[in-house]
Amino acid sequence: MKNLAKRLSNFFLIIAVSVVLFGSGYKLGQKNYFSSASDQAPAVKNKVSDFSLFWDVWDKVEAKYVDKKKIDVKKMYFGAIKGMVASLEDPYTFFLTPEENQQSKDDLGGKFDGIGAQLGLKDNRITVIAPLKDSPAVRAGVKAGDFINAVDGKSTKDWTLPQAVSKIRGEKGTKVLLTLERDGKEIKIPIIRDRIIVDSVELSFKKGVAVLKINQFGDNTDAEWDNAINQIKAEWDAKKIKGMVLDLRDNPGGYLDSSVYLASDFLKEGDLIVKQESSYGSSREYHSDRNGRLLDIPLVVIINRGSASASEILAGALRDHKKATLIGEKSFGKGSVQEAIDLQKGAGLHVTVAKWILPGGDWINSKGIEPKIKVENKIKEGNTLTDEDDKQLKKAVDLLTDNK
Hints:
This protein is of the alpha+beta class. The protein folds into 3 domains: about 100 residues, no CATH class; about 90 residues, Pdz3 Domain (Roll); about 190 residues, 2-enoyl-CoA Hydratase, Chain A, domain 1 (Alpha-Beta Complex). It is about 30% helix and about 25% strand. The chain has 12 helices and 21 strands. The strands form 5 sheets. Strands 1, 2, 14, 15, 16, 19 and 20 form a 7-stranded antiparallel beta sheet that branches. The protein has a 6-stranded mixed beta sheet with strand order 11-12-13-17-18-21, sandwiched between helices. Strands 7-6-8-9 form a 4-stranded antiparallel beta sheet.
């Protein structure tokens, strides 16, 4: 019920740096579609009464462009809408085609179609970091440490990680052929893609410390958080752990309500978590609605340049209430709230409607949050961070275990 309420409210904070706003489109209609749309928007017609220039350009492109195969009226239509919204020059306000809108929902739901393997780089080679539990990758025999030399017969030499991910992901039920290198020998493994569900909360224990990593603030985060916190509380009450590390690195954000819910487990009822100042001239304060389950646990929060929006609300609120020590690197710096609006025919619009202010009064937009203890992970170019190289996590654990 809580997740449903969040979806209905449509307010969330999510970083858009990975969203491609231009160059991709979807098809929908021709001039008669524009006419019906404009008839429903008299306010726009009053501001721009003459669309003749628009249609003049449209007609000339259709008539004169050299490659007629590239003339796609629906793609042009959505491209026009994207351009209109992009004119606001706000990277977090953007139009989504139906496919992009569904992908956005799937991402927040922690699901996608693919083989279910975490990929990384080792010596500039695409490498399997770990196949996910019960995934197609596991069933096909993919193992951690495998190099991926080719995808569907195409060499991965000089590929970036996003390139590899985009080629390996695909629609459920389709096949991808991976050429793997293991112990110096190549093997070819065909894999049928499936729907992959990714946990947004990951709990582990290191040296008597609970380490809770939050990957995003999505549809399932609160429920997964509750399960993890109940385990941590049991360990803390039984004096089996010395403290807790909250890992918010590379967490791009998600639902505002979820960041408030998580923060409340370390705060007293009524404590201010974040203040929202909207474009409508009003403001709203979000307070803890309960006494937290872990009020007294020693807490260290790790942030980096990929910690954004809802992550920054959580980290900033815990810092301002002196509930946690922040370590790592300066966070991304996203201090605005977007409303996600579902439009006709499956399209969507994310529009900035407010900015948020931390309890101490900071608006961190474009500034980020500075950690109290700066620790930078330095790894060899072309490699992916391993537990052995993770100085930030090691420092966080050490802070909780030293002299105890």
